Amino acid sequence: MNDFLTTYGLWLVIALLVLIALVYLLSRKGGDDVVDTPAPTEEATPVQTITAPPVAAAPPPPVVDPMPVADVLAPAAPIPVAPAASTSPSGSDNLMRMKGVGPKLAAMLNDLGVTSFAQIAAWTDSDLAAVDARLGNFKGRPVRDQWIDQAKYLASGDTAGFEAKYGKL
Question: Collapsing DSSP states into helix, strand and coil, what is residue 56?
């Protein structure tokens, strides 16, 4: 035991100090940080209080008519189909080649009428918003994963450009 303390004693002391410092820092993080401000002296100049003018109340938001229930429950209309520039013989592409599109998303896109890269490459902002609104739990993926840009590369057959920007296919 004596040999252990002489060999590792300094390291044990350092480890203990580090542990104490960590406990101290973690205990302060949860509490309020109090900043010590110097007490005012007689030589200090009085602080002038500036008050802001009263703010007028904002007008109420405009009332928007809710969407009729029939429109909400209507079956989803297919997305407009742009002419396919480079599709497979069956007229559809393997949408899972795009980064971020798996089997479930590919099936959802097919149900919406989206079957080729050329269609996605031709989307406008309104088309993108219409598709995004119908993706349920996958909402936001077309923008986040840059589907339109990916589809432009894949529709034109530029796999080298695609792989340079998005990684190996």
Answer: coil
